[in-house]
Specification:
The complex is a heterotrimer.
Chain A lengths: L17 E3 L2 E3 L2 H10 L4 E5 L2 H10 L22 E5 L7 H10 L5 E5 L1 H5 L20 E3 L6 H17 L8 H9 L4
Parallel strand pairs in A: 3-4, 4-5, 5-6
Antiparallel strand pairs in A: 1-2
Helix pairs in contact in A: 1-5, 2-5
Chain B lengths: L7 H4 L8 E5 L11 E7 L2 E8 L7 H5 L8 H5 L6 H16 L5 H29 L3 H22 L19 H25 L3 H7 L7 H6 L5 H5 L6 H4 L20 H27 L18 H6 L1 H11 L7 E10 L2 E10 L6 E5 L1 H5 L3 H5 L4 H11 L3 H5 L1
Antiparallel strand pairs in B: 1-2, 2-3, 4-5, 5-6
Chain C lengths: L1 H16 L3 E5 L6 E4 L4 H10 L7 E10 L4 E10 L4 E10 L4 E3 L8 H12 L2 E3 L41
Parallel strand pairs in C: 2-5, 6-7
Antiparallel strand pairs in C: 1-2, 3-4, 4-5
The chains are: A alpha/beta, B mainly alpha, C alpha/beta.
Chain lengths: 185, 406, 167
């Protein structure tokens, strides 16, 4: 599609399906996945340095809005994606968990940076050694801090997960067992 | 309704007055970092605040006691991560003071360039966030492009954007490349244009001024009693700047003005930072002129036992290999001693109090973290103001969570 | 110039509190005075109000643990913005029972710095308005900056200590 200024706009590619005059048929999974993947509302849980790189990702130069995620949801109840950026100290752990529990299904978690993923260089008494000890994580982004390109790559990986996820996954016994492992219902 | 519920104001005494409590944080979009404040509110007026900190306590000081000296530089990066090069340089200068290393003038000027760029990056973040919190997102989007340009220069100098780990004990790891000089020259030309746009958007903007003037003020006496430093102290009218009072890295040779405010309110803090960015730009220009008069190609002091040699020498030269091994293993000779060195960080006097017992790691290293010290004045500053003023007061104080909690 | 300013500061201290001084040193040109603990607040007040001293800016305050001496030192660093002089004062407290009066009546800035020192070293500042942990979780039972406590997180299982040179 051409705009008035001459730049091209690409729309998300359509999923596989049967097409004819006036109709397009595909499975529900794919339609839901398409819609979800391109309008992820992230909740930035920014605690330290990685949060500053996230600010750069959101700002004009890198512009996360290109991937349909410009609408930050600061309320966990309306968020799809929890972005944990920065060191999570043990004092902060219960709060992170509470935020995760407040999010509605389906929810995804991306752990940005070495600290959130594993504690990073801070193998100390006060730092939680990776957020996957208290909440499940879908995508890990390495780096200390990761460049904005890496954060965008993480978002794209999440988009891929969201797009290909079955609508019934969250009801499956495996998923429930996984949550139970973290002591959640 | 009126019959069974009497009007509250008429019958209750002030002691029985009911207050509501509001928990602001630790994860709140308006706090830009993890700060928790339990606010005691009378309607929309804040009566009292109880800040809780430590949500990102990472035990820097304990960590520093277990790291060889050169490995502490990456820890200092993560103090005030908006201006990490200043922290790196501050730490290097502390160790150089302990070791008694004389740094060549050219390296000092190069450090000044890096530090002033860092100060600008720091102030850009703080001032655009004040704009953001008062509802002016445009400035944030405009000026962040210039911050990206500063990060490009950092990348050219050391390879990293945010947590730079730039320099070595004894100088810098390499000379500025021609591309780097090019980027700096271009930045000097472009910055005033973009910055003037930002300035014209906010500085004399009626809405912005009404919003920020007399918001979160602090008097000079109270600010000094709370040991404020940096732009926040200068906004209150005290011209204390470490660069002038205890010059380091040849700052005494530069010609610059310390801007001071009068009320210590949000607008003054904003304006002091704005002016400091112009001053930083002028300092960078002066430093470039000074470097031209110095012998080219010098980028570190001649202290091979502390400053890592270039890689090609390590592979071809026996002595360089030995030094490289010793430095990397942390087996360098460090004298016993006790030093304090301070630099003017992005938000105030950043001090390093180092006690060395001659071992491979510091015996004790305390970071004087400016925002940990001045953030305790926050309840006093917001008492009696509106909730929305508390938010911009916090963003104008430039409190960085990483530095606050160490 | 520097020497005379330091001598002046020593003179101010000796005016009234000569018996309190244990040791005077100037490592790296920085006047460091070790003092007895009882009158430390009085001495700081004296430095604060003295017309030639005017040490009215508390730069920093911290604790230092000396396990060999079984002592914990509290370091106060003052700065006079009028004369641009700095002085470092130290008091040494027994490790088992470190108690020192609070500095908060003189400097509001001392509030959190003392809380931090309490949090890290367990130094009790008598008369402090709100002496509780500041950075660490409140139910912590150790004072982590004391040398005998380990740095590392004790719950990790993926690290083989012998490979990292730790015992």
């Amino acid at each position: 599609m051409e705009t008035a200024t001459g730049s091209t706009i690409t729309v998300a590619p359509k999923p596989e399906g049967i097409e004819g005059a006036g109709f397009f048929a595909t499975s529900l999974d794919k339609v839901v996945g398409l819609a979800r993947a391109n309008s992820i509302w992230p909740l930035p849980f920014a605690t330290s340095c990685c949060g500053i790189e996230f600010m750069a990702t959101m700002a004009s130069h890198y512009d996360l809005a290109r991937f349909g995620s410009e609408r930050l949801s600061f309320s966990p109840r309306q968020a799809d994606l929890l972005m944990v950026m920065g060191t999570i100290a043990k004092k902060m752990g219960p709060i992170l968990r509470q935020v995760y529990e407040q999010m509605a299904e389906p929810r995804w978690v991306i752990s940005v940076g070495a600290c959130a993923s594993s504690g990073g260089i801070f193998d100390t008494y006060s730092v939680l050694q990776g957020i996957d000890r208290i909440i499940p994580v879908d995508v890990y982004v390495p780096g200390c801090p990761p460049r904005p390109e890496q954060i965008i790559d993480g978002i794209l990986k999440i988009q891929h997960l969201v797009e290909t996820e079955s609508v019934r996954r969250r009801d499956s016994p495996e998923y429930k067992a996984m949550l139970n492992k973290y002591g959640m219902e | 309704m009126q019959d069974n519920q009497p009007a509250t104001d008429a019958l209750t005494t002030p002691e029985e007055k009911q207050y509501s409590y509001l928990n602001l944080g630790p994860t709140h979009p308006a706090t830009h970092g993890i700060f928790q404040n339990v606010l005691k509110m009378d309607g929309e007026i804040i009566m009292d605040a109880e800040p809780t900190v430590g949500y990102i306590h990472r035990a820097f000081e304990k960590l520093a006691e277990r790291r060889p000296f050169y490995q502490i530089t990456p820890i200092t990066d993560r103090l005030n991560y908006c201006s990490s090069p200043i922290n790196n340089m501050g730490w290097h200068m502390t160790v150089e003071k302990l070791l008694g290393i004389e740094i060549p003038k050219r390296v000092q000027y190069m450090r000044v360039i890096i530090m002033e760029l860092a100060r600008m990056a720091d102030h850009i973040i703080c001032n655009t966030i004040i704009g953001q919190d008062t509802g002016a997102t445009t400035g944030f989007l405009y000026l962040f492009q210039m911050r990206e340009r500063i990060y490009e220069i950092y990348e050219e100098i050391c390879g990293a954007r945010l947590t730079t780990n730039v320099g070595r004990i004894g100088g810098l790891e390499r000379d500025f490349s021609p591309k780097c000089w090019n980027l700096i020259e271009k930045f000097i030309v472009d910055f005033p244009i973009k910055f003037s746009e930002f300035t014209s958007l906010l500085e004399r903007n009626r809405i912005f001024m009404d919003r920020t003037i007399n918001c979160g003020p602090i008097s000079a006496e109270r600010a000094l009693n709370y040991s404020f430093s940096g732009p926040n102290l200068r906004a209150a009218g005290v011209d204390y700047d470490v660069r002038v009072m205890t010059p380091y890295s040849s700052y005494e040779e530069f010609d610059f003005v310390i801007p001071v405010g009068t009320n210590g309110d949000t607008y003054d803090r904003f304006m002091v930072r704005q002016e400091e960015m112009w001053q930083s730009l002028s300092i960078i220009k002066q430093a470039i002129e000074k470097i031209k008069k110095e012998p080219a190609g010098v980028y570190s002091a001649k202290v091979p036992e502390y400053c890592l040699p270039p890689k090609e020498e390590v592979y071809n030269d026996m002595e360089a290999l030995i030094y490289h091994f010793k430095i990397v293993m942390g087996e360098t000779e460090i004298p016993k001693g006790e030093v304090y060195h301070c630099v003017e960080g992005g938000n105030g006097e950043l001090g390093f109090y180092l006690i060395s017992d001659g071992g491979r790691t510091p015996f004790r290293l305390q970071f004087r973290r400016p925002c940990f010290i001045y953030y305790q004045a926050y309840p006093e500053m917001i008492k009696g103001s509106m909730l929305s003023d508390a938010v911009i007061t916090m963003s104008s104080m430039n409190v960085i969570a990483g530095e606050l909690d160490a | 110039m520097e020497g005379s300013a330091q001598e002046k500061t020593i003179g101010i201290l000796k005016e009234k509190y000569e018996d309190q001084i244990l040791h005077i040193d100037t490592p790296y040109d920085f006047l460091t005075v070790s003092l007895k603990a009882e009158k430390i607040i009085e001495i700081i007040q004296h430095l604060y109000h003295h017309p030639e001293g005017k040490f009215q800016y508390l730069t920093t305050l911290c604790g230092i643990h000396y396990p060999d001496l079984q002592q914990i030192a509290v370091m106060y660093q003052l700065h006079s913005l009028t004369t641009n002089n700095r002085v470092r004062l130290k008091v040494f407290l027994p490790e088992a029972n470190p108690v020192v009066p609070t500095l908060t009546p003189v400097f509001s800035a001392a509030n959190w710095l003392e809380r931090e020192t309490y949090d890290f070293f367990g130094v009790v500042f008598e008369g402090h308005p709100n002496l509780k942990r500041i950075l660490n979780v409140e139910d912590m039972i150790i004072f982590p900056m004391r040398k005998e406590y380990p740095l590392e997180d004790q719950t990790r299982e993926d690290k083989n200590d012998s490979m990292f040179g730790r015992d």
